[in-house]
Amino acid sequence: MKALLLVDIQNDFLPGGALEVPSGDAVVPLVNELLPLFSQVVATQDWHPAQHLSFASNHAGAKIGDVIDLNGLEQVLWPDHCVQHSKGAAFSDDLNVDAIQMVFQKGTDMNIDSYSGFFDNGHTKDTGLGDYFHSQGITEVFIVGLATDYCVKFTALDAVKLGFNTAVITDATRAVNLHPQDGEIALKDMQQAGVRLITSADLKSTIN
Ligand code: VGL
Ligand code: ZN
Asked: Is 33 helix (H, G, I), strand (E, B) or coil?
């Protein structure tokens, strides 16, 4: 069984949002077109408390983009984003949210970030997404959304580690690119770990 996994298609990651991903909005119409190809559609949602320690604003003297040690893990400091219940944390208004069966929220613990939709960055807490897929008989996971170099990447790497046949639909993802090549490097890292890189056109021609 296949599932489509929508990673963080939230206002703050779209142009004009707090942590805007260049052309992040371009993924939305592609994702809407893919939704009818799947009987299982699941979304992740970055869902931070205002005190989240991935926010530069919560560290005196820190700047956005600084890298700090946060409880033993390397942490990039971000602008305040996806604060719980804010408009920025909501899914894009243009996304067909009616097709989403389950939402898994992450980044809710202020002391640790969570790029992957499966586990936090320390791999200590589980969101329940892996168990949900198992309970639904999902063996194949197709990933779309934002951002290629953070949440898409770590979600895809964990999906492979958990034994799912994992594909990233590259034209339905966009990168933050704090450094210009980050998106490209992330795709290579995923491919080396066993993630298949496909396009939405590939998918449309092979499914149904
Ligand atoms: C993300 C940075 C911080 C993402 C989330 O969704 O890729 N990136 N929080
Ligand atoms: Zn975040």
From this structure: helix
